[in-house]
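Per reviewer request, we include the raw input and output of the structure prediction for the construct analysed in the revised manuscript.
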Amino acid sequence: MTGTDTTTEVPDDVGSAAAARAVAAAGVDAYPRIVATLIRLTGDWTLAEDCAQESLAVALERWPGDGVPTNPGAWLMTVARNRAIDVLRRAAVERRKLHELAVLTPEDPQPEAGAGEDVVDDRLRLIFTCCHPALALDARVALTLRTVCGVPTADIARLLLVSESTMTRRLTRARTRIAQAGIPYRVPTGPALAERLPGVLAVLYLLFTRGYVPDGEPAFADEAVRLARLLDGLMPEQSEVAALRALLLFQHSRRDARRDADGNLLTLQRQDWAQWDRAAIAEGQAALARVRDEGPYAWQARIAACHATASSTDTTDWPTIARAYDALADIRPSPVIALNRAVAHGYAYGPAAGLDLLDAARAGGGLDGYPLAAAVEADLVAQQGDRSRAATLFREAAAMVSSTDERSALLERATELSR
């Protein structure tokens, strides 16, 4: 960039590949920081994203020849900031806006990207803005992925099962909605924070779930864990934030054990528990130790902790899990919670107890056509010893699922019971 820019020289024959890797690595962390900072300073979402993208493109052009900067994030921030100034000047933005942009001009030619509280606060403000309740839930998820995580629009479209053009329009409408509704770019305080925080947590939980499902994109689960860590670090006094962080870590700790060597999906009972990520479990336990309330994520985290800290299904503390599901069913009743409660009671107090709760859960019709309900019944019936009936139920469940991996796992259970 300048004569004062210190770089690490890269041999010509590997320069392009090394630079591309450096750009990709820097972009993961720098892109959201740049976007968040430029949104705060310019108030223009599109401009912020365009300038962040252009900084990455310039890096791909220059770094192979010039070398990778000592501080790639700061280099990208400087390029993006300068580009924003140029665009606004050429557009003859009013003097007031140009005056505000004076704070963008660095005294140091290579400031620390992400240094100081403002940038950290920008990330938090951006999360709350993207997750504003005035936006539809899918729009919140999409905007969080695009703006906070820097996920390409095409990948978001694939995740949410729409075309790229549809997703582009959806993101544009979401940004327009933020501008037209005057949604403030800030973290709410007082009662407003208590009202808004559950929506933010719900977006992160949905983001994780869509990356954790058998046919999901693992990178989205990684992003959800990263954002949960960020949010917990910025809001350590919020117990449910710590609970969500713990919950995601406990779940994510099993990611490498969920499939066998051939890529087949494994049930919890069949996983090699020695492959679970003990560092993630320990981090989850530390976060859970700070939880003092009885919120929905707190109870789910306690349930996940019982699974994560056991050595096998037989040593799992099922009575504690059953009691936790009892509490969760009281504060957040749903057909899926009722189904999981039946599973827990079946393992804690015998399959008959689980089948009774399953019948009660089905009474409202909320589980009609839900394949996991048939799978749960099959598992409980198998525990009772009726292998033939259990095999039939597993086949019924397999016929209802859309995931090839899940179908294969259910059919394998049916085959084993039929032998």
